[in-house]
Amino acid sequence: MSAAPDLPLWAAILVSFFVVTGALVTLIGSIGLWRLPDFYARLHAPSLGATLGTGAMLVGSIICFSVLQQRPLIHEVLIGLFVTITTPVTLMLLASASLYRDRVEGNDAAPKEDPAPTEP
Amino acid sequence: MNGLRRVIPYPLLFLALLVMWLLMTQSLSLGQLLLGAVVALGGCWAMTALDPPPARLRRPAAAARLAGRVFVDVFRSNVAVGSIILGSEDRRTHAGFMRLKLDLKSPYGLAVLAIVLTCTPGTQWVRYDPATGLLLLHVLDLVDDKEWVRTIKGRYEGLLMEIFE
Amino acid sequence: MSVAILGWSITLAQVLLTLAMGCAALRFIRGPRAQDRIIGLDTFYVNAMLLLVTLGIRSGTTLYFEAALVIGLLGFVGTVALAKFLMRGEVIE
Question: Where in or outside the cell is it found (chain B) (predicted)?
């Protein structure tokens, strides 16, 4: 169960740190999906995993493969780029779709009128 | 210069596509460079058919400063939202909607602001009305809405207006 | 020594990510409304993508990278289509 590539000790510790941190942040985000009380609050939960969770995990992966192949290998940056651009798009679409539905159905979850603009 | 503009209508897009291709194939050989250039050229020509409004990136230094701020804020708000999620019941019920007026008008600037606000956990871009310039936000920790307006206007909007307008 | 450290921490990360997928799946099953299910699905595929990245680190090959990229892109398209469907009741207008 503990098969893994043979890295120098410092790299192994660094990669372990980033991978476990990323997984922990992602788990906290997913727990938020379960614990937060309503839909609009839950919208904030996935972005934990999509930003810091993915970021830490990919940094770990970049370090691992760069040390393993002895040249900078940064193709994981592509995943990070796609995730940071695509997650906001889905969340914004979901937020506006849900607001539209709540208003059409007259639900209490969304305010009937937009709140008054806050002055700075 | 003009001739080059005609062949490569969007130099930045061309470079970005080429870099993406090289990252994906994980090599720097001449063959992959040429193939990537062909793909990037195709992408640029396809883009001319869409005819996007012209965008100019003014100050690279300001863009770098914005990237640094976003990086720090993503980190901080991750910690803040994580503590709300794991914290007690009454901390999770301060969520609410708020609206604020944006002075930023450039569509590219607004797109970047939307990505930044949605990417930082704790704020969620819901709807923007271009006629009035009013933005509807959902905030997880809505205790002081004036503080949020100050944060958004001070930390992001000024820099974005500097970059895109 | 370093193999053991890395091996066990990857196992730990995989357990954590599987729990995270469980939370997302629970939200997908329980709902209560369609938008809650979609947001559960969205989190589920991001977590699955990260699980593939950890598998890639464990095996030491970059093969899993392509799989993770494809999951990320397909998941995005799927969620956008579902959100669009929620808005109007049809995907292409």
Answer: Cell membrane
Which residue of B119, B141, B151 to mutate against A (max A Cβ within 10 Å)? B119
Q: Is B94 helix (H, G, I), strand (E, B) or coil?
A: coil
B45 and B110 inside one domain: no
Per-residue pLDDT tens digits for C38-64: 999 999 999 999 999 999 888 888 788
The fold for domain C2-88 equals: Helix Hairpins (1.10.287)
Domain ranges of chain C: 2-88
Residues B97 and B116 in one domain: yes
Q: With contact defined as beta carbons under 8 Å apart, do C77 and A82 qualify?
A: no
**Tokens 């001319």, residue?**
B48
Enumerate the residues of chain B whose CB falls inside 8 A of the CB of residue A62.
none
Q: Chain B closest CA to A100's CA: distance in Å?
A: 11
In a domain, B55, yes or no: no
Q: Where are the alpha helices (DSSP H) in B30-106?
A: 30-50, 60-86
pLDDT at C47: 93
Q: Across the interface, do A64 and C57 touch by the CB < 8 Å criterion? A: yes
d(C-alpha A80, C-alpha B112), whole Å: 16
Chain A positions in Cβ-Cβ contact with residue C79 (cut-off 8 Å): 90, 93-94
Reported ipTM: 0.86
Q: Which domain holds residue B70?
A: 60-164
Picking from A21, A26, A36, A77 by the largest number of C CB atoms within 10 A of its own CB, the best residue to mutate is A26
pLDDT at C62: 79
Could you tell me which residue, A6 or B20, shows the higher pLDDT?
Answer: B20
Strand partners for B99: A117, B136
